[in-house]
Amino acid sequence: MENILDIIESIAHEKGLSSENVKEAVKAAFIQTAKRLVNPEFAYDAEIDPETKSIRVYQTITVVEDDDERLEGEEAAAYIGLTRAKAEVDPDVEVGDEFQIEHDIESHGRTAAATLFREIEFHIQRMVENELYNKYKEKIGTIVSGRVTRVDGKQNTYIEMEEVKAVLPMKSRIKGEHFKVGDVVNAVVRRVNIDKVNGISIELSRTSPKFLEELLRLEVPEINDKLVIVEKCARIPGERAKIALLSTHPQVDPVGATVGVKGVRINAVSDELLGENIDCVEYTSVPELFIARAMSPAIISSVTIEGDPEDEESEAKAIVTLPSDQKSKAIGKSGINIRLASMLTGYAIELVEQGGTATTEEGMPAEEKKEDLSSLEALFGE
Predict the structure, then answer these.
(1) How many CB atoms lie within 10 A of CB 355?
(2) Are 57 and 44 in contact (CB under 8 A)?
(3) The pTM of the whole model exceeds 0.90
(4) C-alpha angle 231/232/233, rounded to 5°?
(5) d(Cα 222, Cα 68) in Å, to the nearest integer?
(6) Of 196, 163, 160, whose CA–CA distance to 179 is shortest?
(7) How many domains are there within the chain?
(8) In angstroms, rounded to a whole number, what is the distance separating the alpha carbons of residues 316 and 302?
(9) What is the domain range of residue 247?
């Protein structure tokens, strides 16, 4: 085929691909076409002549003994007898040697043209998808923006972003959110997959803690410049979140910088999250102090640590002692404050009133919890 290099340059420019990659895809398409037209078991190769700008397809022929059974079978065209090879190819050839002969695909007529077109289209499409896959694979955990094109019956939202479409599943949407066609949506890339049947698929999320972290990075220059680091983050999407912040500069207050003057920065992030309340605490590597801060707005008297959160065989537990008038603040509405503090710190938290009873992170007295667990064990026979 003549002028193949011009065709390759045109495809590369149109699809935004490198010429070398397109060249390899076109060669693969020619090879696959030859296999489909002749025999998929035969070995082929393709070469592009830069001077004539043409491509040639070659079939590999193997030299065998004159009485080899393969010379009479369905694959006879892939083999040549030793005597004939010595006469027609090279007098010094031996059994097992291989050589190539040119195969003219155009001799197959319209069938070859149609097959070649489909193969080139297929290989170029796969290459485009691989390029997009690699591009968005690097964007996992970062924010992207797109316009809603469709919302299906299951409330999955389909979003168009530049050259690719993505889906925001209902489970990854903040409770109470509703989108319609034409809305611009921000979300974090959660997962990127690719397969031969469906091509590339991108899943987005607005409920991931990473989405909150990325929103903070965009809104707070100190976080973007890494003067403040978001060490840990815990969310109950649409309701409340806690973030642990660490300053890398002695003159930067991590909480103050993140909250902003009169809360302008944190409120902007909260508005994007449908009014989600965000508690900012300063991170410390001292677990007792970190837990006390995570229990804010409750004022804690003391914290006792039992177990190691990195030890999978034992439960890491924190016994938090506090005045009785702080208990409701520590638990929070429906237990949300103590749950988030536990998620943020990695410790199961048990509250103990000064001179009173213990309360677990589920918001029930510890003794009642033990009885409840015992009844469950009896019910399930464990």
Answers:
(1) 8
(2) yes
(3) no
(4) 140
(5) 77
(6) 160
(7) 4
(8) 17
(9) 208-283
